[in-house]
Structures are given as C-alpha cells and as structure tokens.
Amino acid sequence: MMRHLVFLLFFAAQSIWAQFPPMFMGGPPGFAQFQAMVLQRHQARTLLYREALEELRKNPKAADVPLCPAGVKPKAGECLLPPVAAAPPAVEKPAAAPVEEKAPASAVPPAPTFVGRRIALLVGNNAYPPPIPALETPIADVTRIASVLKGRFGYEVELLKDAGKEAIIAALNRLATQARPEDAVLIFYAGHGYEMDDTKMGYWIPIDASVKTAKGWISNDDIARLLAAIPARQIILVSDSCFSGTLAREKKFTRPASTRPEELFHRRSVVVLTSGDEEPVSDEGKEGHSIFAWNLIRALEAAGGITPGYEVWRDVHRGVTKEYPQTPQYGAVVSAGHMDGGEYLFRLEKR
After folding, report:
1. pTM of the full predicted structure?
2. Rounded CA gap, 47 and 67, in Å?
3. What are φ and ψ of residue 295, in 5° steps?
4. Domains in the chain, CATH or no CATH each
C-alpha cells in the first residue's frame, strides 16, 4: 500500500511539474500566478527528490566531498583542495627611511591594479536525464557570456557543458592550482538547484545527480570551500539556478567606501551574484537566454572602463525585477576569505 502511495505521489509531482515547464508559454506570469507556481513547483521537486532529501536529513554531510590529504593533488573530483592562506598584499610598502629630498608626486609610480590573468570557468547544464526535467537555456547562456568575457574583458575561458559533479569539482580544483594571487577569477553555474526547507542548505544539481541519493549533489558548504582554495584576490561566483540566493546569504554586500582599483586590489574579494533569492527562477528570457542571463549579458556589454560588480548586479537586478517577481542577490563569502571593503572589478580589455 505504501509503495502504491509513493508511486502515485511521484507521478502527481511529475504532473504538477509538467504544468510549469522551464519556458513560460505565452509570456511571463503575473505575481499571483508566479507565487502559485513557486509553491506547486517546490512541492513537485520535494516529492521528486524525496529519497535524496531523506538521506540528507539523516546525514547532512551526505553530499559533501572530503578535503584532499596534505600534499595530494587530485587527478579528478574525488576530494577538495584545502583553503589557501591569506594572500599577501599586491605591493608591500617599504619601511620609511629618511631622505633629503622628496621626489615629486608625479614621479612616484602608482600601485598596480590588475597585473595577472583573467580566468573564467562557466558550467551550463541542459540535458538532465529523466526524471529530472531538462532545461532550455544554460548552454546558450554560458556560450554567449563566455564570448562577451573573452571579447570585451580578455578572460581566458573554459566551458563545461552538461557536466557532472566530478567534472565540476575537478575543474574548480584545477583552477585553484593554476590561479595566482594577482589573478581575477569568474565562475558561472547555470543548471538545477535546490534548497532544503528545514536546514536552508542550498545545492547545485549536476547533470549526473540522482533523485535517490544526494551523493551527486554539490552543497553550498563545498562551494564555499572550493572558492576558499582559489588563491586569487579577485573572485566572483555567478549562479543562475533555482534557490541560488542561499549562496549570497552569508553576508549582505555593502558597497565599499572606495572603488579605486589600487585600493581594492590589496583586499581579497570573494563575492556572489545570484539569479534569485529563495525562489525558483525563470528559464525564460529573450533571444534564447534566461531572463537573468539576458540581463547579465546586456550589463556586461554596456560596462565601460573599470566596473564594480555591485554596479553589474544593480543593472541586472533592475532589469530582472522589472519583468519578473525574481530578485537577483549580491553577497560576500566571508568563509572563503572575503575581506571587508573588498569588491570584484570588471575591466575592459585594452584595444
């Protein structure tokens, strides 16, 4: 009898989910319709992931990946590299020494701003196998954003399409071994996500994730640890997935008193830009992109000179909330080493 009930509940969830596919046919929903969709879609997902969620309730660390033993460099995604020590300042100030004559201010070279590489890792997951519904736009989103980052800002770009957990973690571990303190790093994830109602823990759902176990999921805790292992002073994580706002919840971002690059570059900045808060996010937008990705593309294409991440978020937030009851978030990840007053900077490539 119990098996029969579970069977009926599962197909009821599938039926509910089918009523709210990733693309909203006939245009964006109104607020009341969206709120109803939020509730029903989350109920459907809860039923779909029932077994994996029960595993997490019994063992909250069921999805977590162990830290790599000291001195071990993983060949794949079987473990996480340990956090890096705090990066030293970009320019050490020499001890004061008496001088007979001070050089003119114009003759003193300014402190460097960006002296390293700009590196981007973008993950887009479309082809989820049943019973997890496939998505429409992530691969198109990361492909277009990669083009903008490379063409306008000079990023070295790596694209992962339809990636599983091991491939994602391996790529982030590899990034941690390649990046240097003077580098700027951008990570973008577009795919399914989930937030547990009771623990409020958020997860990425990779392409090979299962509804029966959480071992193939990636927890927010592990995401923070992966960021902490990257030694770059400039790090931004952009996440376009349902309930992604949990990543930005650790510390509300406050605009720095100064956005001068020569000052910001001395601080480690680890910030998160997410497509929404505690709600499912729309896979519909314009020109084949999600509403979040479409606005992010526009903001990056319009950015000039050196643009703080806060300003990019502000433009994206304005564009998304104007059309959808979805609220992009911007926060700092203190557990990954973010320092007060830090901020991520987008700098146009010199032509």
Report:
1. 0.83
2. 32
3. -70, -35
4. 118-191+220-347 (3.40.50.1460)
